[in-house]
Amino acid sequence: MPPVPREDPTVDSDSDVEFEDVPIQPPQPQQKIPSSLDQPSEHAESVSANIPWTPELHIPEQRETPVASGSDAERQLRGRLSIAIDRINTRQMKARIGMDAMNTQAGLTRYTSIQQLADDIEGTADMLWESATPSIQVEGLITLAGILERSLNTYNFDPIPTLTLLNKLDYYFIALMQGEHPVSHHKLPGASPDHPLVTQTQKVRIRSIAEITRSNLFAMMPGPREDDMNEDDDDADEKDDWEEPEMPVWMMQASKVYERVLMLLGDQGDPNETGGFNEYD
């Protein structure tokens, strides 16, 4: 594991950030995979664990330098982020209610699967990563991770999109905390040992979100199917040797949710600290 950078004790709180309303057209809706909250996920089926599943990781290229503070580019970025998060919150709220209003605008209908929510969160997280602007990246990613943490129990457990997104968020957070690219390990734009990209207060919130997400995810994971348990009982008298149930290919990855973040932060942060960024909620 790369060495943990020394933190500046003088940097211990978040800067107040104000986001303006910018007249920007909302992003076009992405193509989604049709699904239903009432149907179990096809990914949740138990399959052979001979070849453990590893989530794909695509890290987009970043700008060479952060956008200038107070510039038009910064205002545009803040506006795009505000619109994206408002859209995600609106669609997720409708998903919890389970219905859309009549004549709902295209792209603002409720989510019907975790895949749809994950697509929007990932797209927004990638936009933040590409910006190479820590003053906006960190708070935006904390907000997105908080939305995902609070939304998991809205949907049937679907390991592939869920674990793929959590793996990417883990990489993004660890990269910003260490100040280096998660794959190439090159120094990130704006990173400096004297000026950490992530404050101590932000680390507390990230750790809290990571721990709560892990706990919620484990609570959602399906146990042995009832029919399998009945078959085991019926065959108990016929078999002398008990065979361990086959594990899903994604089980190993599920045990690694936010593993990098939690290993880096160790005992830092208070697990009772609430996560999320109220400005976007």
UniProtKB/TrEMBL annotation:
GO cellular component, one term: transcription factor TFIIH holo complex
Domain of life of the source: Eukaryota
A Pfam family annotated for this UniProt entry: TFB6
Chain intervals with Acidic residues compositional bias: 10-21, 228-246
Database matches in InterPro entries: Tfb6 (IPR031349)
Residue segments, region Disordered: 1-75, 220-246
This protein's name: Uncharacterized protein
Organism: Penicillium ucsense
Lineage per the UniProt record: Eukaryota, Fungi, Dikarya, Ascomycota, Pezizomycotina
